[in-house]
Amino acid sequence: MSKIDRRRGYWNREKETMSHAARERYQANWLAPLIEMAWAKAPGVRRRLERAGLGPRDLRGPDDLARLPVIKKSEMPDLQKADPPFGGFCTAPMHEVRRVFISPGPIFEPMGPEISAWHAETCLYAGGFRPGDIVLDTFLYHLVPAAHELDEALNLIGCTAVPTGVGNVDTQVTVATALRATGYVGTPSFLMTIVQRAKEMGVGRLPLEVAQVGAEPLPESLRNQLENEHGIMTRQGFGTADLGLIAYECAEKSGMHLVDDAVVQVCDPQSGEPLPHGQIGELVATVHNPTYPMIRFGTGDLTIIDDARCACGRTAARMLGWRGRADEVTKVRGMFIHPRQVDEVVARVSGVARYQVVVGRDAHQDSLTLRVELTADAQAATVTPKLEAAIRDVMKLRGTIAVVSAGAIPDGSKKIQDERKWD
Ligand SMILES: [Zn+2]
Asked: pLDDT per residue over 67-109, tens digit each?
């Protein structure tokens, strides 16, 4: 298998490279009938629209969706209890449901009769999977959907799935070797466990060439090790049990392209209003899944969307990773900031020992001050302008740097200290 090119090509060139206008038309073409069908067959969706004073014809395209309030994942257990088992969000009768998955809550998710409701083929292909790959599917096969949905997507692109599930590390090594498995899907940490165990068992390098990982963060240090030391092209996707896969990395690994069968918006976590691209906000998605059409579903996850062109040729905007939970944000001059962004600012500049952001208010204006303790060898005059630039770049805000003496930022202090008084 080593001769095949895993970095080039598309699962569906026409869709993946369409223009912005064509993508809007494509999405409107599935969205309008989806809403009409949900109105007719999913009383839970109908109740949400009615409560917002909307009918199915009011939501014709992606831009109309903002009229419908966001539904929070945290509301699902109660909604499902009130109208069991799916809260009135399933459009299919139970005898057409192939599987019922169970997320903590509990939240029940139906897998309908249609194939490819998770839209994972595009993601797997962009991540380097090719027809003929033999793939260990190491996600959990009980309760949750990822293993089953990816299994189906692997078959659709012509791969052979080996449902090994999670755990049994020695068996994974033995199976990978015996079947000459070229692919892996699962968590990145478990992949590392398997390749290290292979070394301990004296098997040496496994035949694995490509991996699609998810369900936990992928640190770049771990990816580098998997790619450089073990020769495994490693890409990640983002999805949830409710929504399916909504974003995936291409060969460029510079953010995750949004799938065309989801309308993904980054929204103000408080009001639900869509925010311009480039701002941090809550990921709210509407997915083209006829059986379980989640519409304006707020995941509670924070992210940023970048619509700059990608060198791979795909035209879909990219989400720039997971940036924390929506309940940890602080709003400064109309922009949300998150503790992880503070870490990102400081990580770009060397010479900072400890740091804390203080949000204040002077003359009815929010102020943002980054307090820093410097390392012994660092010069304030060098570090300060770099930090100011990093704040502008990462947070899209202007901030002031205050260099403080060693020990001025106490242990255990909050990364973002909000000192604004609202009186
Ligand atoms: Zn790309």
From this structure: 999 999 889 999 999 999 999 999 999 999 999 999 888 899 9
| Ligand 1 center from residue 349 Cα (angstroms) | 27
Task: Please tell me the distance between residue 309's alpha carbon and the centre of ligand 1 in angstroms.
Answer: 8
pTM equals: 0.82
How far apart are the CA of 315 and the centre of ligand 1, in A?
8
CA 18 to ligand 1 centroid distance, Å: 13
- 234-267 pLDDT per residue, tens: 999 999 999 999 999 999 999 999 999 999 999 9
d(CA 315, CA 305): 13
Contact 274, 391 (CB under 8 A): no
- In angstroms, how far is the first alpha carbon of the chain from the final one? 68
284 C-alpha to ligand 1 centroid (Å): 22
SS3 per residue for 246-290:
EEECCCCCCCEEECCCEEEEEECCCCCCECCCCCCEEEEEEECCC
